[in-house]
């Protein structure tokens, strides 16, 4: 009975398909990208937290993005690395761990969109209502918006994953790189109509609201910049908003690609690659763009680097 219970609790994870010759390069590449993502995002969050001059709404929102990127990368990359050298027939994962991984994977993807919506609102107020920015985007408002973004995603994803976890299982093979919601309900032989309806509604509401709000926000910002007499201010606003918009488009398209590829089982290898890119490319780009292209943060990095170099030369 103990062996039967153990077998029911274990799932076989398909994982990343690599040849013995490509396993080491794949492991090193993923490890280096993961370390880079962690160092950049943790460094950015730590710098903003320690420097009081950076305790501004925009930079506090960067902290939200950095923390979420650390969560997303840590949810996916380490488990993938741990299975690269494991034979395909021995890549087991406990069902409870699979459910947790699915929850955090979708939670990370959802928070990305809600935080980007808040950042777009912040830029809208800064550009379109600059005189009222300090009274609207207070620290208290940023905290309220941030907590709302995380809590709403927490509830939506908890319901979605909970519906899949409540299904009876008749399969024990996860045909994916990692566990996500479709992987969970595909383990069941029951009707998954409710899961599909909720999943579709969840996706439409999340992506639709983020796409719609950000499109309207940046159209308004563009109109204000085009009619603004100060070309210098307009150029700066467009540069800041432009980088944010590019990152949003990359995130949106990479996430939408994964959703589309889930509808084509024959393209499982392409879906796995898209999943890896979604969890490493946007987090790495977020840290670079927000950490190096924002003047105040770049100046802080330069000052810290100069201090360390001077100290080393004196030593």
Descriptive keywords:
disordered N terminus, 11 helices, 315 residues, mainly alpha, 78% helix
Structural class estimated from helices and strands: mainly alpha
Separate helix tally: 11
Bin the strand percentage: under 5%
**Strand adjacency order, main sheet:** 2-1-3
pLDDT < 50 stretches:
1-6
Mean residue pLDDT: 83
How far apart are the termini? 67 Å
Radius of gyration: 22 Å
Q: Can you describe what's shown?
A:
This protein has 315 residues and is an all-alpha fold. Helices cover 78% and strands 3% of the residues. The chain is built from 11 helices and 3 strands, in the order αβααβαααβααααα. It has a 3-stranded mixed sheet. It is globular and about 65 Å long. The termini are far apart. Mean pLDDT is 83; it is low at 1-6.
């Amino acid at each position: 009975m103990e062996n039967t219970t153990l077998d029911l609790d274990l799932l076989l994870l398909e994982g990343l398909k690599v040849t013995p010759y490509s396993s080491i390069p794949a492991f090193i590449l993923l490890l280096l990208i993961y370390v880079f993502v962690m160092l950049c995002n943790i460094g950015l969050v730590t710098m903003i937290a320690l420097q009081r001059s950076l305790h501004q709404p925009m930079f506090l929102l960067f902290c939200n993005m950095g923390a979420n990127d650390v969560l997303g990368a840590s949810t996916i990359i380490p488990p993938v690395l741990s299975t690269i050298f494991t034979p395909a027939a021995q890549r087991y994962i406990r069902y409870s761990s699979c459910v947790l991984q699915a929850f955090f994977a979708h939670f990370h993807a959802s928070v990305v969109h809600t935080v980007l919506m808040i950042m777009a609102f912040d830029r809208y107020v800064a550009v379109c209502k600059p005189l009222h920015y300090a009274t609207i985007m207070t620290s208290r408002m940023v905290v309220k918006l941030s907590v709302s973004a995380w809590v709403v995603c927490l509830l939506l994803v908890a319901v979605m994953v909970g519906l899949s976890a409540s299904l009876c299982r008749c399969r024990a093979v996860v045909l994916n790189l990692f566990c996500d919601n479709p992987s969970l309900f595909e383990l069941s032989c029951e009707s998954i109509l409710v899961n599909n309806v909720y999943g579709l509604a969840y996706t439409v509401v999340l992506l639709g609201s983020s796409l719609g709000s950000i499109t309207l926000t940046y159209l308004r910002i563009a109109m204000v910049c085009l009619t603004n007499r100060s070309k210098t201010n307009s150029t700066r606003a467009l540069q800041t908003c432009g980088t944010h918009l590019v990152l949003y488009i990359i995130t949106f398209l990479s996430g939408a690609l994964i959703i589309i590829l889930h509808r084509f089982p024959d393209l499982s290898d392409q879906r796995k690659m898209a999943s890896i890119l979604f969890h490493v490319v946007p987090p790495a780009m977020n840290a670079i763009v927000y950490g190096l292209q924002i003047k105040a943060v770049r100046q802080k990095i330069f000052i810290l680097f100069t201090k360390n170099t001077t100290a080393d030369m004196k030593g």
